[in-house]
Specification:
By secondary structure, the protein is mainly α. The protein has 2 helices and no strands.
Length: 138
Amino acid sequence: MAALAVIGTAMSMSQQRMAYKAEARAIENQASRDAETAKIRANEQTIARQERLLESLSANIASSGASGAGLGGSTYNIIKSDIESFGKEQERSDLASELQIGSIKESARNRAQAARYAGRLGIGQTLIQGATAYKALS
């Protein structure tokens, strides 16, 4: 009878170990998917910004050409300003994206670690219960 208690405890501990490892893996996998989604979203935003810049540059060049002013003076300064603004906006966006991805990964790491810790505590509790049952049967 005592041997059955030991076997049952060992099986329960093994199942708990597999469960907490699977939970931690699932958390980490979801974080990887979320980080990849954030990267894709950041790339889409970059493309949209580039398209807006090209539209603005095209409009400025077309209007200066239509007026016969050429690309000198104020037209050049406007184009230069648009390009500089785009660069600054892109840098801010890249930084925000990196921070978001880092936050996703850090949060997942913490949640996975908590799942592992909770699983280990559960295994310890099962071991104590099994030892108590074994002692009661002996």
